[in-house]
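I hope you will forgive my troubling you with a question about protein structure. I set the record out below, with my sincere thanks for your time.
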Amino acid sequence: MSYDDVEIEDMEWNEELKAYTYPCPCGDLFQITKDELRIGEEIAHCPSCSLYITVIYNLDDFLSDSNSNIKTNPPNQQQPIAVA
């Protein structure tokens, strides 16, 4: 059984961990990555104890987010040109 149900909006994005985090009673942080959310994972685990939480979120928000992460070339970088 999950320790708690937590809305994704109540979690914080941790740039260093590249994960959404939420305080665990043990003093560490529950963690779940965007990639895990994109594949439908809803359980955030604490790396220091056996507790876990259920993350409440809209999967569509993360599926559309993956489309916006398509890598593009920086505007100042020259593009190769084919010469015939």
Remarks:
- Residues 68-74 have pLDDT under 50 and may be disordered.
- The chain is about 20% helix and 25% strand.
- Helices lie at 34-38, 59-68.
